[in-house]
Design goal:
Blueprint (H helix, E strand, L loop, with lengths): L5 E9 L4 E3 H5 L6 H8 L3 E3 L7 H16 L8 E5 L11 H8 L6 E4 L5 H15 L5 E7 L12 H4 L5 E9 L6 E9 L7 E2 L13 H5 L6 E2 L1 H23 L8 E4 L4 H11 L10 H4 L6 H11 L8 E8 L3 E8 L1
Parallel strand pairs: 4-5, 4-6, 11-12
Antiparallel strand pairs: 1-7, 2-3, 6-7, 8-13, 9-10, 12-13
Helix pairs in contact: 3-4, 8-9
This protein binds oxa(dethia)-CoA.
Length: 333
């Protein structure tokens, strides 16, 4: 039985330079800055310009994670790329990142799990490191939403929420108890899979998409917002508690919670429900919107840069998203 454990060696993030404000959106659909801020907390988001894809953004985030971790590209043993918005239908985007970074002929996993994808990726990387098979693994969350959103009043309930961006963590072997990934808990429940999804194109249909599908906006994401909201404010506290019990932690023992950035109101409600003081949760959805699999590493990267996460701190990552999926990771940074 191997005794290896993993730790985060470095975190990187990248968002495209183009800022799209709520007022920009109000010019092309019936919405307002006030409505968006009141319901979601979002003030602006970043959207890519044509030609910039998830792989390019991910490569930038990974380059920073490698620099921070002090590990050369040639020493990366595996890559996990989480996204719901792959650059092309196939192959998975991971190999494009591998090519951009000049990595070796290493395994490149592409995974989904939407907003929970980054934590699922961490769990997978952790298992490979614990087994002793690999030493250095890049876990990436990268999303380009903007090219797949209905930028009209019809799609306003979803479109105003999403942003583009990438985040990455370099996982390596832990050498002591002060910096270590302690636990991951992963969950899924497909009962309500259709309350947050994009229906077309679909390989179960022939052809995969029709003009009628497009007229019915089936190629755009749809969400039953209130039901998703209720699931989120139930599942996120539960999975946080699950991690606390596993690790024998009290709320006082946690230095920082980094929640998935879907809605500031959801995260504020989660904090209130469990009695977490405001300063122990970092949010940045105000600037970036919901970047799905990228949101946790982007938020964690910012919290580290601001000094809100210090080496050795007890950090909890929690996520909830389409699938439905939800998960937590506890670590000593
Ligand atoms: O990351 C994946 C997980 N995602 C989530 O966790 C998101 C969960 N859901 C939510 O965050 C919220 O449900 C939303 C922010 C999406 C929406 O907030 P809501 O309070 O549930 O609003 P609603 O959908 O019930 O809409 C209220 C009203 C409606 O008008 P009527 O029917 O009351 O006349 C909507 O048509 O607001 C209208 N509306 C808008 N108005 C202005 C919907 N979108 C917009 C908009 N601007 N962008």
């Amino acid at each position: 039985m191997s005794t290896y454990r993993s730790r985060i060696l470095g975190v990187g993030a990248y968002v495209p330079p183009r800022v799209v404000t709520n007022d920009d959106l109000a010019k092309v659909m019936e919405t307002s800055h006030e409505w968006i801020v009141e319901r979601s907390g979002i003030e602006e988001r970043r959207w890519v310009d044509p030609g910039e894809g998830g792989a390019e953004m991910a490569a930038k985030a990974c380059t920073e994670a490698l620099e921070k971790g002090g590990v050369a590209a040639k020493d990366v043993d595996m890559l996990v790329y989480a996204t719901l918005s792959p650059d092309v239908t196939f192959p998975g985007t991971g190999v494009f990142v591998q090519r951009l970074l000049g990595l070796g002929e290493i395994p490149c996993y592409d995974i989904r799990q939407q907003c929970t994808g980054f934590i699922y990726g961490l769990a997978m990387a952790d298992a490979f490191i614990r087994s002793g098979q690999y030493k250095n693994i890049l876990v990436i969350g990268s999303e380009v939403h903007s090219t797949g959103l209905d930028v009209s009043t019809r799609g306003r309930d979803v479109t105003v929420l999403f942003g583009d961006g990438a985040g990455a963590a370099l996982l390596g072997r832990a050498t002591d108890d002060a910096h270590v990934l302690l636990s991951t808990h992963l969950h899924a429940d497909g009962k309500d899979a259709e309350i947050l999804w994009t229906e077309s194109p679909a390989s179960r249909n022939h052809p995969r998409i029709t003009a009628a599908d497009m007229d019915a906006a089936k190629h755009y994401p749809t969400m039953v917002g209130k039901r998703v909201f209720k699931h989120a404010v139930t599942r996120m506290p539960m999975v946080l508690m699950e991690g606390m019990v596993t690790n024998g932690l009290k709320l006082d023992d946690i230095d920082m919670v980094i929640p998935h950035q879907a809605n500031l109101r959801i995260n504020q409600m989660v904090a209130k429900m469990i009695g977490l003081p405001e300063h122990k949760m970092h949010n940045n959805i105000q600037k970036y919107g919901n970047t799905t699999a990228a949101s946790i590493p982007i938020c964690m990267h910012e919290a580290i840069a601001l000094g809100k996460i210090q080496p050795g701190n007890m950090v909890a990552l929690i996520a909830f998203g389409a699938g439905l999926t939800w998960a937590s990771a506890f670590l000593r940074y």
